[in-house]
Write a structure and sequence with these properties.
255 residues, alpha/beta, Rossmann fold, eight-stranded mixed sheet, 10 helices, 19% strand, AB_hydrolase_1, AB_hydrolase_fold, FrsA_esterase
Length: 255
């Protein structure tokens, strides 16, 4: 069983840190999956964003036979830069390019938790290389952030997702980006490609209604509400079992 490899890739002028795993035994067709973390909840979270993802990435590679990649968005972990919505979208696009260059997968699937899921869908809708998407506790929109952009900017500074004192240089543009990407609109554009939408029934951060709205906008999504689960679905074994089962079915459909 081979472990994955830590490394970096470029997103514009920034260096982002990534973890990539490929199956230890050669497979005839190699699908690619990218896992996107959410917006940090606190300062520790900004530094440790996605820190448990490599274990899951190894499982995707070794148990399911995927080329699996995770990375930290700008402003998180040891990646360069400061958070902006457009910046995170650019980072995910760069990650797709990077996975294509590294392993030449036949098709790419995106998996995202929380904000990472909402942005994954926004990017996938306009990128034909993305064959399917799985969301864990994703938001339908960013209206709450967009309605109080200065408060949100302060919050992003407090938790360390924005580290440069002079950032953003154009506040109005930075705040406009919070409305530019609407996952609920992206869901209808992404159809009819496969979409899995999961949500914890007891999610205290994002209402379960957001996932229902996303599934409805798509039209043929698989919606799974996990009984008794909270916001961090990534740590719920039932949600992970559903996710891995879904990826396995995606792979079988591709053969």
């Amino acid at each position: 069983m081979s472990g994955g490899m830590n490394g970096t890739f470029r997103s514009g002028p920034l260096t982002l840190h990534r973890y990539l795993a490929v199956p230890s035994t050669p497979v005839s067709s190699l699908p690619g999956v990218i896992m996107c973390h959410g917006f940090p909840i606190g300062p520790l979270d900004a530094r440790q964003a996605g820190v448990t993802f490599p274990q899951l990435i190894d499982r995707m590679a070794n148990e399911l036979g995927w080329a699996a990649l995770t990375f930290t968005f700008r402003g998180c972990g040891s990646s360069d830069g400061d958070f902006s919505m457009q910046g995170w979208v650019d980072d995910l696009r760069a990650a797709i390019d990077h996975l294509e260059e590294e392993v030449q997968p036949n098709g790419i699937w995106l998996v995202g938790t929380n904000t990472g899921g909402a942005l994954a869908l926004s990017v996938a809708a306009d990128d034909p290389r993305v064959r399917g998407c799985a969301l864990l506790g994703a938001r339908a929109d960013f209206d709450d952030w967009a309605s109080q952009p200065r408060r949100f900017l302060e919050h992003a500074r407090e938790i360390g997702a924005i580290r440069t004192p002079s950032f953003p240089q154009a506040f109005d543009e930075w705040s406009r980006e919070l409305r530019r990407f609407r996952p609920v609109d992206a869901a209808s554009r992404f159809a009819p490609r496969p979409l899995l939408v999961m949500h914890g029934e007891e999610d205290e951060s994002v209402p379960v209604a957001d996932s229902r709205v996303l599934a409805e906008a798509h039209g043929s999504a698989e919606l799974r509400v996990v009984a008794g689960a909270g916001h961090r679905l990534r740590h719920d074994p039932r949600a992970i079992a559903v996710l891995l089962g879904w990826l396995d079915r995606q792979r079988a459909l591709m053969m």
